[in-house]
Each structure stands twice: as structure tokens, then as C-alpha cells.
Amino acid sequence: MTAPLLRVENVSKRFGGFVALDNIDLDVAPGERLGLIGPNGSGKSTLVNCMCGTLHHDTGDVSFEGRSVDGLSAHERTRLGMARSFQLPRPFASLSVADNLRVPLLYTGLHRSGAESSSGELDDRCHDLLGLVSLSHKAHKLPRDLTQVEMRKLELARAMAADPKLLIADEAMAGLSQSEVKDIVSLLIRLNERGVTIILIEHIMTAVMSFSQRLVVLVSGRKIGDGKPDDVIRDPEVERAYLGQ
Amino acid sequence: MRNSLFVLLAVLAAAAVYAAARIVDNPYVFFAGYVVLQFVVLATAWNILGGYCGYVNFGSAAFFALGAYTTVAMVKFPALAAKYLPEPLIAVTNLIFPLPIPVLILFGGVIAGLVGLGTGYLTLRLRGVYFSIATLALAVVLQTLVVNWDYVGGSRGAYVVRPATTPFFGIDYMEYLFLMMLALSVATLAAARSIERSRLGFGFAAIRDDELAAESCGVPTLRLKLVATALSGAFMGMAGAPFPYYIGFLEPSSAFGLAYAVNSIAMPMIGGTTSWIGPLIGAVLLGTLQQLATVTIWSELSLLIVGLLLIGFVIVAPNGIVGLLETLLGRKRTEPARAADAEGKA
Description:
Chain A has nine helices and ten strands.
């Protein structure tokens, strides 16, 4: 078996008396497409925040490519190759769409890919990424001029600009129409085909099922399911706790 | 525009300003112009942290005063040396001192920059209004220290006697100070502009817009904020360094004056905070208005002007003059396109 790209071991997180994560174990293999589901308040976003360094867990260990990242800040983890998109898009409002991508390119992407920080290289990478998410025609617009789906695409493109090995997409499809959801799923699959390991946190089951090679279910901070998507959703405990049957 | 071309144009503009001031042939122009240029430096320096990074500093006066009091400390050093140092060292001291204004500006910048760095380290984990209150507290603490520091004059204040001659063709000392502040303005504006479109500038803008997202993009937010506080503090200190020679008698209430803190914030807010030109426009506009009010009406009216203009701009143009112009020009630019669209549909 190949060594996991990301390993989460016995991670727990409490907010006062509330247990948000309870001894979570999770391995993510390189190149994998992992779906992470759970009802609201199940600890999905807390787990993402602990993985990415936005929150510090109380116990346990998170390691990336075999190295513990517990003492590292969020930006240091990004530079190692862990990128994320946010549940609610958080664009840099005063910067154009292209400049939104320049920030991670300048601080992470160009260095990680070993490219020179010349303005030509920067523009080329920016152009490629905008093309990938079909936003080339909005390059000079401000984020406020984007539609909801374009905003989601910008969020993913910005995460991709950091040239990650692992992309964590936190509810990248919330509030989108069915066709827009398909659009984002096919985009995520294209990114995965470029070699990026992806963890998709999502409520839209059709998207999760069509995207994921493996499914993990969290309920009340505990992992109650982990396996092939078809097997996991038929698990009686998952059905009872998450699907309401 | 390349940075080198910008510096060249800025130097040419500065030369034109100096030539115009000489043509007027009234020493008061240099006296009043110095204050306006001092505000150009202060407003631009404030904008590096407040405008680019979004961290509002209420303690500008403290950094300005640090520069001014560094000069006082340097001016008084020979007397201190004569009291405590052995004869050979006194001779060396007398060779070095008095230090020329450019060196004093450098010293003021270094000291204020270091204090800015320290302040940043202590306060930058605070955000929003809490950070602003902390900078205000810094000003109060520093003023208390200076008031109780006898060497720099304490609460009594300190006289700084201008040298009889200047190193530049024997020009008047006020003209010399004006020239120094003009050069410092060019340097500050060039630095601010080069930051704006640099990697550092993109990092600052990301911090201003969303610190959490910036961190997720690999931006080392804490380190960049320390760079911003140090740079901003250093330029404010540089603006304050020649001040004792300008005013002749420095006391804590004048160096730590409310006017510096208020103007440093108001000028970029009125001009526009997202670009180097905003603080320049704000400082020239407000600085000139205040000088006119001081001469023609009453000096205390100047702060009232600042307050009224600030209220007006917050209501009418919250993004300042630059933001207002961008909106107007943007609207004009899109109007032909809309008209073309309408024609196409018709």
C-alpha cells in the first residue's frame, strides 16, 4: 500500500464542553478523490480547519507526506502543498479576479513548481488557471461582478494557484443549480486528473456520489463510515444518522 | 510604469515644485510648504499600514515624535559626552557632531522603525478596533516617558538652535529643511508605489481584504504586518526628525500633538487609501487648506476643516477622491459600451 499523503491520527477538538471532533483517524492516499459528508455540526469544517492549521486540535496528530504539520501555521502548510477553498467564498474584494490568483502564485505556486517569479511566468500561470475555470473573460473584473458559480470557480482557481498536492474543497457547490453543480464536479475531476488529491466536503449527495472514490461520514464529531460510496450509504448506521432512514 | 521612470518623474516634479517656490520669492512659502510636505510623508507612511494592510494606526504622533526626539537626543549628545567621556572621546565626538540633517533623518527612521517593529510584534495579534486602541496607548506611554526624560528636556521642552550655515550653497535654513522634506517625500512616495505592485503589496492587499484567506494562500500574514509596521513607523520617524530644527523649541505637547494623529488618518482617507497617490492628494489638499486657514483666519480652525472634510468624504466618497474618480471614469468608460449594446439590440 502506498504511504498516505495526509494522515489524521486520533484528532480531537473541543469548544468548551462541546466535543467537535472525537478521536478522528483518516488516511488519504495520493491521487485519491475522497468525499467527506455529515449533517450540519458533525465536525467536517472543524476537521478541515485542523488539517489546514486554521484551528489547533487538542489531541492527536496531522501529518502530510509523512511529516507532522502540527506546529506549522496555515501559510506554512499551504507552502507544503495543502490548499483549501472556503465554504463561503472569501475573495480578496479589492483585487481583480486575475490579481486574486496572483497572491497565491507569488507566495506559493511559483516557488512550489520551481518556476521563476518573472512577470511573464506569473501572467502565463494566471492565464492558464483562468482558462481552466473558464474565467478568462472576467480576468480584470472585481469579485463583486462575478456570479455565484463564478465566485466558486475563483475560489477553486485560487486554491489551485498554490500548486497543491492536496486540495480541500469545503462545500464548493453550496447554493448552485444542478447544471452548475455538474460544472464544478467536472472541474474537480479535471483537477484530480492533473494529479491533485481532493477531499470534497459536500451536502449534495449526487455530486458526492459521482465524484468520490471513497466516502467518509462524520456524525457528532465521530467517524461512523469509511469505504466505497455505495457501501457506505447502505450502512445502516449511516442511513440512520445521516440519511434519516 | 517602471519604478525607475517613476522616480525620475517624481524628481522632476519635485524640482518643479522647488523652482516654483523659489520664483514666488517669499520665505513663508518654504515655511508653509515644509508642513505640507511633512504631511505628505506622514500620510503616505500611515497608508502603508492603514491603507495597504487595513490596520488603522492612531499612534502616528508617537512615531513622528520618536523621530523628533531622536534628533533632540543627538543634538544634546556632545554636551553629555563633555560631561562623562574622557578627553580623546570628546574630541572624536566633536568631530562627528553636530550630525547633518540627512543622517538625523536616517537615525529617526531607524529608531521609529524599530519601535514600530516592537509595537507590531506586541499588538498585531489584535485586530480591528483593538489594534487601533493599542496604538493609541503606545502614544500615551511614549509621551509619558518623554515627559519624564530630563535629557531630552522632559515636560519643559528643549531648544534646538539651527546652524548658521547650510551645506547647500549657503541657502536659507528653512529652504534647506524644505528641500530635505521634498527629497523625503519623493523617497516615501517612490517606496509606497514600488510596494503597491510588488509581491509585498499583493500580500498587504490580501491581508487587508481577508486575513484568513491570505494565510490559506501562503501569505505569511504576521511577518508581513511586522514589515508594514516597521516601514510605516520608520517613514513617520523620518518625517519627525527635522522637526526640532523647523520649530526651534520642541515640547512633548507639540511633538505628540493630536493634529499629527488626526491628519495622518484623515489625509489618506480623503485622498484614497488603496493607492500611493491618494495620501499625496489628501495631504496636499488638506495641508494647503490648513495653511491658508492658519494665515487668513485662525490656526485652530485647521482641525475643524479636517473634521468637516472627513465627515463629508465618509458620507459622499468613502473611497476618497481616487475612489470617486475611478467610479466616475469607470462609469464614463462603460457608457459607450452600453450605448453600443443598445444600438445593437435596436
